[in-house]
């Protein structure tokens, strides 16, 4: 097997395990929520969630360091400079331990002032103090020693990292149930969370030393050059994290300030599914950064260009169907999920699904430019989106309420995304006609396949007036119909839609039983 096939298989395997882990994590969180609320009050649960909102800003420091580990570990390995991995890891860990300790002490000193500012009830002050201190300690310990996990990701062992996370998540789930049974209350969440990350740190340490037998973290490996890498590239990635945090929260901040909490809650209902839908395509894009670093370090620019274009195409193929379903059937989804009378969130869902789908065109490109050490491309497009959000969101909210906020987000993200695609295609020397031909037709085809089902839904839903469970069954039938029509349309247009290489790969797949001859015939090159 040649190096090209190895990289393709590695990306596919990493993407698969990332998707499996994300589906597991999302599924368990959805199932656990009502279970948790049967043991603790809604105020305690809200307090636990609040810990992560506050500490997310503390985690921005780790975001920059972690991306620096991944980018440069992959680059050094591609050049055979193993000693620089020791210098990178040693400098990063000692720096983060010192920085983490300072941030933790500052957080402890500021906590007595912070808790009253957050409006936490007096009877929950002691609980809040314990939860904040515990989660902050776990955060600091995790990002101080995250270098071991990140160098594994830089070596493209993302599948191994996801297995570690999956195992730790299963242990967390078991311990959570045990701690609740023992009557530990809301602190059950903290203790189980701490064990989970303790396992991740320990297992990452063990496997990092197995993958890199030469690995050594020592004071003698500290280097100013490595520290400059963290300050330069890591600082830019932290700024990217801050911009991303602002873009994903600005609409809710303005809604809360202008329209108050009830409108913010309605908006949250509409944004949840489009936001969750990003998990799977983002998982695929996230595996590309170390691969891009490897190809850039070994001067394989043509292959990097091919990975950028193909991965964008596959991400849009993966995203087209679920986002078409969200846009077409948002009113029915909202009615089945939270009940009738929520037309506003349904419209918000449709608008945000459109904006998110456009933004997903940038997914593989942003991962590639990060891997190439060019975060400026991403910073510029996110800066455009952030400035547009600042200017448009208050105006649009006053004009159209929560739907106006959704339109402001969609316009800002779409404009920034288009700007990024112009620059990325120029960077990779890809003409616009070729980019559009490779990425847009699959999305249009998946949307077109849903139109007959949409017409059927509109003619049957209102007369039937289904309640929640019958409505869920009917919605599932519409979803299956959409999927079936999409598959039929893809097979009908396969000779125009797929390249010769893709058809050869599809023909190499062996379905079970009597389907094999038909499958071979379908994908044979005419």
From TrEMBL:
Keywords: Cell membrane, Membrane, Transmembrane, Transmembrane helix. It is found in: Cell membrane. Its main location: membrane. The chain crosses the membrane at residues 21-41, 47-67, 88-111, 131-152, 164-184, 190-212, 314-334, 346-369, 381-400, 406-422, 443-461, 473-493. It holds the Pfam family Polysacc_synt_3. It is a multi-pass membrane protein. This is Polysaccharide biosynthesis protein.
């Amino acid at each position: 097997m040649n190096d090209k096939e190895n990289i393709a298989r590695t990306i596919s395997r990493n993407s698969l395990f990332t998707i499996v882990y994300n589906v597991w994590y999302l599924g368990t969180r959805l199932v656990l929520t009502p279970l948790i609320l049967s043991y603790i009050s809604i105020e305690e649960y809200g307090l636990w969630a609040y810990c992560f909102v506050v500490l997310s800003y503390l985690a921005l420091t780790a975001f920059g360091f972690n991306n620096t580990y991944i980018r440069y570990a992959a680059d050094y390995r591609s050049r055979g400079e193993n000693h620089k991995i020791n210098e990178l890891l040693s400098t990063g860990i000692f720096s983060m331990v010192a920085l983490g300790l300072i941030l933790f002490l500052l957080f402890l000193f500021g906590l007595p002032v912070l808790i009253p500012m957050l409006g936490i009830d007096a009877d929950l002050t002691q609980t809040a103090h314990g939860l904040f201190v515990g989660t902050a300690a776990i955060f600091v310990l995790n990002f101080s020693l995250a270098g071991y996990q990140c160098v594994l990701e830089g070596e493209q062992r993302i599948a191994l990292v996801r297995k570690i996370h999956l195992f730790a998540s299963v242990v967390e789930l078991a311990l959570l149930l045990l701690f609740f049974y023992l009557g530990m209350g809301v602190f059950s969440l903290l203790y189980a969370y701490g064990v989970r990350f303790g396992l991740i740190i320990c297992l990452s340490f063990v496997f990092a030393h197995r993958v890199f037998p030469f690995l050594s973290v020592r004071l003698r490996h500290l280097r100013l050059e490595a520290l400059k890498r963290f300050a330069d590239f890591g600082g830019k990635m932290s700024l990217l994290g801050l911009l991303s945090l602002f873009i994903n929260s600005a609409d809710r901040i303005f809604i809360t300030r202008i329209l108050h909490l009830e409108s913010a809650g309605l908006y949250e209902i509409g944004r949840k599914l489009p936001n969750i839908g990003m998990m799977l395509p983002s998982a695929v894009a996230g595996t590309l950064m170390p691969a891009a670093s490897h190809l850039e370090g070994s001067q394989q620019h043509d292959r990097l260009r091919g990975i950028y274009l193909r991965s964008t195409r596959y991400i849009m193929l993966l995203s087209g169907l679920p986002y078409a379903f969200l846009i077409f059937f948002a009113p029915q989804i909202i009615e089945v999920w939270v009940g009738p009378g929520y037309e506003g969130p349904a419209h918000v869902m449709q608008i945000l699904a459109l904006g998110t789908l456009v933004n997903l065109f940038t997914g593989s490109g942003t991962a590639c430019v990060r891997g190439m050490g060019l975060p400026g491309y991403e910073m510029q497009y996110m800066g455009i989106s952030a400035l547009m959000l600042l200017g448009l969101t208050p105006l649009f909210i006053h004009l159209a309420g929560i739907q106006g906020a959704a339109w402001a987000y969609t316009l800002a993200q779409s404009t920034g995304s288009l700007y990024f695609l112009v620059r990325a295609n120029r960077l990779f020397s890809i003409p616009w006609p070729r980019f559009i031909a490779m990425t847009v037709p699959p999305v249009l085809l998946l949307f077109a396949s849903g139109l007959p089902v949409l017409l059927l839904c509109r003619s049957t839903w209102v007369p039937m007036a289904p309640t929640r469970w019958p409505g869920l069954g009917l919605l599932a039938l519409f979803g299956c119909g959409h999927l079936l029509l999409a598959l039929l349309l893809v097979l009908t247009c396969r000779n125009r839609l797929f390249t010769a290489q893709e058809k050869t790969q599809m023909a190499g797949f062996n379905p079970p039983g009597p389907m094999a001859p038909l499958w071979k015939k379908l994908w044979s090159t005419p």
